[in-house]
Amino acid sequence: MPPLYGRPRDPQIDQAVLGATLAVLDESGYARLTIEEVARRAGTTKPAVYRRWPDRQRLALAALAARLGSARAPDTGCTLCDLNEGINVFIAAFRRIRPDVLGPLLADCAAEPGLRETFMTTLFEPPRAAVAEMIDRAVARRDLRADIDRDLVLDLLGSLVHYRALFGHAPVSGGQVEAAVEALLGGIATDYPALVEHSRQVTGDPRTHAAHG
């Protein structure tokens, strides 16, 4: 992802700065992130960093966006499989971010409306958009009802990733994701037992979703 501010002069410097930023965030959290330390680790200067990102908030967002941007949602043709695996992909990506990064970073962005919007768009829109694609494919396959409230479904599923990732108060297990997806699909699927059976066929495991079959 390109920097959130300005025009890059040297892609190698960009990558070095983003890598150094992630290293500091991983080691020390957001509170200890400084432009000076990032520049030192990247082997460049503070002005070179500031030419690309005007403050540490946007620098941190660019670095985290680069990390989350590598996460991709699956498309197997199995609605249960895709939603379970897809949500777990993004949970795993957010697990790579320390709990003392997202909360303090949001607080630091909150005072400036445009910056807060950038926070939400940069970090929470990618998983939301990926889940939206999975839901749209499921509706097109007629696995889900066409009259569902798409935004509400997105919020319900997205909360599994966003709420616990942001506050870090509890981990999310694969079993919890599966239970939440199945509870939701039980209400919005056109034929939920058929989805369960398809999932069993795709995975080749007769035990898959056995409690819900």
TrEMBL record:
The keyword 4Fe-4S does not apply. PROSITE patterns: HTH_TETR_2. Residues 11-71 form the HTH tetR-type domain. Pfam families: TetR_C_11, TetR_N. Signal peptide: none annotated. Residues 34-53 bind DNA. It comes from the Bacteria. Keywords: DNA-binding, Transcription, Transcription regulation. PANTHER family: HTH-TYPE TRANSCRIPTIONAL REGULATOR RUTR, TETR-FAMILY TRANSCRIPTIONAL REGULATOR. This is TetR/AcrR family transcriptional regulator. It comes from Nonomuraea marmarensis. The lineage of its organism: Bacteria, Bacillati, Actinomycetota, Actinomycetes, Streptosporangiales.
